[in-house]
Amino acid sequence: MRVIEAALRRKREWAKMGAARAKTWATDSDKFIRKGRKESAENLGSSVQMFEWQPKGLKQVEKPWAPWELRFSIGSSRRAGENVARLQKAVVDRGLYRFGPVDLEVYWQDRVGIVGANGAGKSTLLGLLLGTIEPDAGQVRPGSGLVVGNVDQFRAIFAGEAPLLEVFRGESGLGIEEARSLLAKFGLGEIHVLRPSGSLSPGERTRAGLALLMAYGVNIVVLDEPTNHLDLDAIEQLERALGQFDGTILLVTHDRALLDHVRFTRLFEVVAEPDATGVMVGQVFERPPGAEAPAGFPQG
User: Fold this and answer.
1) pLDDT in tens, 14-50
2) Residues 72-76: what's their mean pLDDT?
3) What is the distance between the alpha carbons of residues 56 and 1, in angstroms, rounded to a whole number?
4) What is the pLDDT of residues 221-254, one digit of tens each?
5) pLDDT at 292
6) What is the 3 state secondary structure string of the chain?
């Protein structure tokens, strides 16, 4: 009831504004424009009168309809070992680009932000830490008991002809009602769940990936430019979920706002510069979290 009454108040205000503006339009040289604007103002006033009687005949409802709002926490698995990954003089050689040698270690419950210019080697560092890239020299020692939730990999699952609900159930192990309920939390309702998963937009696939992240019990969350496919409301909810997560976070981002709003304990900047032979060499520098934006990081 209050929602309708508030809408009526707005309509009355718009009707008054429309009538006032119609007077100022009286000198318009085009009679058709004058006529259309006058009728528009009058119609808005009539619509107010038409709806004013309706609230009296309506029953009070317990809770008005509200649009979907993403509310989720990241399911946490049992803790991993003390070390998540250790790089010891690790090198990745790609001919005209060489990453390293790099020595660093990531620990349990580290919240790591990874930044740097495009092509500097952020994805290479992430791949080494996760064990998806083998070093050409040096060593990578992964920790024990790691359960990784990589949103990008989850997004890639939803790329075929099978319906979203079928794919999601197969990956999550949930029943039909549980799966529908969880997907609905991410704005994926009836019109989405029976569509081929590959027909979803990039943002919808990201939401489905986040839903899987919630369904899984993970102790490491990996996000590579997560804000590229999310709207502002979803980004805010993601920030809150990351704030509550008690495991390890590896987050690659160019989004300065996300970097400011997510609590990090460590910040790695990846920088690539040419050596004397013209080969681009990527190195990793640890910066204090919350420090001024590193070189090559977008401002504003």
Assistant:
1) 555 555 544 544 444 445 444 554 555 555 455 545 5
2) 50
3) 9
4) 888 887 776 667 667 767 777 777 788 999 888 7
5) 55
6) CHHHHHHHHHHHHHHHHHHHHHHHHHHCCCHHHHHHHHHHHHHHHHHHHHHHCHHHHCCCCCCCCCCCCCCCCCCECCCCCCEEEEEEEEEEECCCEEEEEEEEEEECCCEEEEEECCCCCHHHHHHHHHCCCCCCEEEEEECCCCCEEEHHHHHHHCCCCCEHHHHHHHHHCCCHHHHHHHHHCCCCCHHHHCCEHHHCCHHHHHHHHHHHHHHCCECEEEEECHHHHCCHHHHHHHHHHHHHCCCEEEEECCCHHHHHHCCCCEEEEEEEEECCCCCEEEEEEEECCCCCCCCCCCCC
pTM above 0.85, yes or no: no
CB 212 within 8 A of CB 154: yes
C-alpha 146 chain-centroid distance: 23
